[in-house]
Amino acid sequence: MTSFFARLLGKATSRKKQHTLSVDIHSHLLPGVDDGSKTMYESVKMIKAYKAMGYKKLITTPHIMWHRYKNSSEIILEKLEYLKDALADHEVDIEVEAASEYFLDEHFAKLLANKEILTFGDNYLLFEMSYTRAPKDLREIVFDIEMAGYRPVLAHPERYIFMHDDFKEYEELKELGVFFQLNLNSLAGQYSKRVQKIALELANRGMVDFLGSDVHKLSQTETLQRVLASDTLQQVFAKNTILNDTLL
Ligand SMILES: [Fe+2]
Predict the structure, then answer these.
(1) Fewer CB within 10 Å, N side or C side of the chain?
(2) How far, in Å, from the CA of 148 to the mean position of ligand 1?
(3) Structural domain that includes position 77
């Protein structure tokens, strides 16, 4: 016979608070500026999907990657205003801000020197680099970012193939003060089995600071929805201090 206390415990367990996410810090939702949303219609549809998933604030981050996407703070902020107007027209009530996903290149070095950087929250700077090859002076760049008063956040650390075989690479970056932003859809294997495995490993080691959707198109919001409802995500919350909702 199940005792009263066992039943009570069972109920308490089933009622245990599920962690949710209210803030997203990485996406490509501004139309026509990079490889993300192509039209305003698509942007509005994607943002409706985020709202339905419970998000309250989106910090969208178009690429600034000089060999592919020659964006600037002005272009991004202007597009953001158009997007906000469209959301108001469609009565989609959600907070939207913009920063950028900076690719580490010479153009970035110039922007950094001039402090022409779009940040989010308390001076966080989202950056990415080549998936296959480490920038030769990565430590120096991280140091420069920090000396300029920014807090470096590495986008999707699990996607850098050149780091996969040596976890010390990750540990060293953490020691330098780099925050790690895991892509939620990596947990579902959206990129590859290998990337999924590294994502879980980073999470199990408690090395994740932010979670990002990195959504580029509507179909990826379906994967995102599955990840948000998964036990895996609850385990990520249990093992890491996730900072997203400090930005609300
Ligand atoms: Fe991205």
Answers:
(1) N
(2) 23
(3) 19-247
